[in-house]
Structures are given as structure tokens and as C-alpha cells.
Amino acid sequence: PARTCIVCTGSQGEPRAALNLMGQGRHRFVTVGDMDTVVFSSHPIPGNEAAVARLHNALARRGARLVHSGQLGVHTTGHGKADELLALHDAADPDLFIPVHGEYAHLVAHHDLALGRGMGDHRVLRCTDGDRVKLTGDGVAHAGRVPDGHVMVYESGRPVSDHLLEERRAMSGEGFVFVRVLVDGRRGRLAEPPVVDSRGWVEPGDRGDWHGRVATEVAEALAGPLADGTRDTKELGRLTRRATGRLVSRQTGRKPALVPVVEVR
Fold first, then answer.
1. DSSP 53
2. Confidence of residue 169 (pLDDT cuts 50, 70, 90)
3. How is domain 1-76 classified at the architecture level of CATH?
4. Degrees (nearest 5) of the Cα angle 10, 155, 164?
């Protein structure tokens, strides 16, 4: 059709929303071009300004004409005003009430609106994420809390462990240092110098020097325990990690992810 109106998600620059996919040319069914007008009937939520600006630019590059609240009075809100909320309360006339929409200041205002309408304190409850609520014949009350932190999950729905998340943060922020140690178990010494590699820790031109320092530090740290009969790979790995971390932190002030691998032959 020559004239079609599409109402879609993405006015806040959400990366996987329909409008963002159109701006990137990745939407399966809609292609935006120079014959199209995109109307943003919204204000950027604080914190989303950069994402919204990127979306505007992406759509503009595809030739779309943009209309937003900075140009015309096209903003419309999905949030009820106080008089609209009061009309809802009058129509529903609830026995119990828990405000759930908006920032905390909005919850307080909505809570006060219900009290001002004449509801008793025991029938109005203000909650935050994680609060447990108990409903009784006398009203509504807090009943403790449940965990409410963020949980990262794989696409399959399986949660990602905190340990793995910490490793990912360290690798993305400070890089990683890999140390491979090969032990001659019969002779009680290293079979060869430790092998060290890293990424994102020091400048590429400085890696050779730093890798040599780490190898020396690890070899010196393991010499005594190996001579004393230590062969447990977990203990040798712990000593390798500690020696590496001590040098890395002391000399560079960085905290990359440390990946020790110990083999005993």
C-alpha cells in the first residue's frame, strides 16, 4: 500500500526493538526509505538520550523524515495523570491497593492519592521489587523479601553463574594472562619454562618482556614446593595464580583474568 501507518516498538532506542532493526536495515518485513516519515511520540527517558540519538541518525541515513517532540507537540504519554488515576479508583473502588507503576516517587504519589480518597492505611501498601505481600481479611501487609537481583541467562533460559560473569567482566575490562606450567613429576622440577600469553593486558610491543617476567616469577614460586614433593595440580595452579597476580598487580596496577594451566607428567 502507498499509505500505511505502522505502530511499533523502539522509541527509546532499545537494540532489539522493531524501530532499531528498521534503522539498521535488519527488519524482516519493513524497509525504511526516503518516502517514509517516522514519528516519535515520546520523550527520551533519562539515560536513553544517546541510544535515541543513534536511532534518529540511523533512520535519517536511510532517508526517513523524522518528527519528534523537539519539533512539534507530538508527545503522548502512557502514564496516567493524577485526575485520571483518581477516576480509575472511583470506577474500580478497590478494597486493597498496591501501586506498581513508575519510579518510586510515582509510587509514593499514587499511594498518597489512594489514602486521600479515604482508603485505610492497612488497605494500601507501597512495595519495591522483592517485597513479599500477605493478603488477609484485615488488609495487606509486608511479609519479608525474596531475592530480586539481576540474573543473566542463556538463550536456553539456563542462568549464567556469578563466577563466569566475573571472569567475563575481568576479560573485557582488564584482559587476561594465560600461564601453562609443565611439571616433571619424577624429578620434581619444571619440564620446561612456563609458557605465558596474554591479551588486553599490556601493549602488544611490551608483551614479550612482561611474559618473560611472569615466567620467571612463576618458576621461582614453584621451585621450592616441587622440590618438597608437591604434585597436586590444584595446589600448583593456586601457587601459579598467586605468583602471576602478585607480579601483574604490583608492576602494572592491573587485574586481568588469570588462567593458570598445570600438567604433571
1. H
2. confident
3. 3-Layer(aba) Sandwich (3.40)
4. 110
